[in-house]
Design brief:
This protein is of the alpha/beta class. 35% of the residues lie in helices and 21% in strands. It folds into 3 domains: 3-128, Sandwich (Tumour Suppressor Smad4); 139-294, P-loop containing nucleotide triphosphate hydrolases (Rossmann fold); 299-422.
Length: 427
């Protein structure tokens, strides 16, 4: 490929976002033999044919089964001029006049992208991205896991509080069970029994002894979700338990000491509930005396958004377009992780192929977007709403000024100037 063509291809921006890069994976499905996954951990590979069964990797040469003539391809990391290695992308090229198919289209030379399906004769290669795991805990918070401190996790609905609580339990090494209880799921009349248990005959319908969540979580972790829903009278009983670590079941006469770590979760600021007399002050100070972790909403945690998209791609064997991920970063996601995963699951189940790109479901998401400020409860100004709307349309059209202008009914120069005002990197 000529230098000018290569430069133009990089300038288009597609290769930087989608292109296969160093340390990505290549899944090979040979016509005969077992599939094999190789890491793109070298700057160049040769892909040759041989008269054997299965895939063979020797040094930097990949051998694929083929009996009808010989083929030879190269897979080379091409660097963008003036950029570091993170901007390098792989170019697949034929050297024997034997073409390959990339996503069904014949080619002799092409940059390969994540999610591409490449057919070399009857052998299939699938380009996969290496998944970078995102740890929801900050480095300084990792010490919390190994301690016996009780924890409060604060975060909006759908931010993954229960998921984090389970991670903390699994990594804590506590031998007991992880027992989750959502306080708001129970009526005031039975929540005490759910937590502390009851003895047979304690009330109408108590036909057997019940252990309760605290005993179930003995030597383990009890996760109390939506702790802000706990009635005031039970806050007093829980406070007594926290001081003594002893519980007495409903209708019982004997107490029992238990060793349980409690993780609380709330979608509200508990100190505000104290001011509204919905939370006892002494109870608040007691449960807040341990450790506290705040989870960012998805609109402010783009790294997590990317990770969730990648994780689901791997799980479902799909490929979510990087352009679509960038588009999702502009949304407020009031339902956070739960809303994003629900949206993507719907798209994947109804998609025709492996690539997940913009469709009418995203249009519906766009039309129902709430233009509240992404910081605090205040609303955006009219000018800010206008700028945000133009930006979303610009991303929706794949950063096409002309198409954006047509949708918005303005000139392309207006879209360009708006993007400059936003000081984005999308130009």
């Amino acid at each position: 490929m000529e230098k000018l063509q290569l430069k133009n291809y990089f300038a288009d921006g597609l290769l930087e976002a989608n292109g296969a890069r160093l340390n990505d994976k290549l899944l090979i499905l040979p016509i005969q033999g077992r599939k094999k996954e190789i890491s793109l951990n070298r700057r160049s590979f040769k892909i040759n044919s041989y008269d054997e069964i299965g895939v063979c990797l020797k040094d930097s040469t990949v051998y694929l089964p083929h009996k009808k003539g010989n083929f030879s391809f190269s897979l080379t990391l091409i660097a963008r001029e003036g950029k570091d290695e993170s901007y390098s992308r792989y170019l697949l090229k034929s050297h024997t006049g034997w073409p390959f198919k990339i996503n069904g289209t014949l080619s002799f030379e092409s940059f390969i992208e994540r999610g591409d399906v490449i057919d070399l004769s009857y052998n299939r290669l699938i380009v996969e991205e290496v998944l970078e795991i995102v740890n929801p805990l900050k480095p300084e918070e990792k010490k919390i896991i190994e301690s016996d401190l009780d924890i409060i996790i604060e975060g909006e609905t759908g931010t993954g509080k229960s998921r984090l609580a389970r991670i903390i339990h699994e990594k804590s090494g506590r031998p007991g069970d992880f027992v989750p209880i959502n306080i708001s799921a129970f009526s005031r009349g039975i929540i005490e029994s759910e937590l502390f248990g009851h003895v047979k005959g304690a009330f109408t319908g108590a036909i057997f002894n019940k252990r309760g969540a605290f005993l179930q979580a003995n030597n383990g972790t009890l996760f109390l979700d939506e702790i802000d829903s706990l009635p005031l009278e039970l806050q007093t009983k829980l406070l007594l338990f926290l001081d003594s670590k002893e519980l007495r079941p409903v209708g019982g006469e004997q107490t029992r000491k238990v060793n349980v770590r409690i993780i609380y979760a709330t979608g509200q600021k508990l100190r505000y509930l104290v001011e509204e007399d919905r939370l006892r002050k002494d109870f608040y100070f007691r449960i807040s005396s341990g450790a506290s972790i705040s989870l960012l909403p998805l609109r402010n945690n783009h790294k997590l958004l990317e990770y969730l998209c990648q994780e689901l791609s791997f799980k479902e064997n799909k490929f979510i377009s990087p352009k679509l991920i960038e588009y999702y970063k502009t949304f407020s996601w009031p339902g956070n992780i739960r809303q994003l995963l629900g949206h993507l699951n719907k798209k994947m189940k109804l998609a025709k192929g492996r690539k997940i790109e913009m469709d009418h479901f995203d249009e519906d998401l766009f039309l129902h977007e709430d233009f509240k400020s992404q910081v605090g409860p205040s609303f955006l100004t009219l000018d800010q709403v206008k700028m945000e709307y133009i930006h979303k349309v610009y991303l929706y059209t794949g950063k096409n000024f002309t198409r954006s202008a047509e949708i918005l009914g303005v000139s392309a120069n207006t879209v360009k100037s708006s993007m400059k005002k936003l000081s984005t990197n999308d130009l």
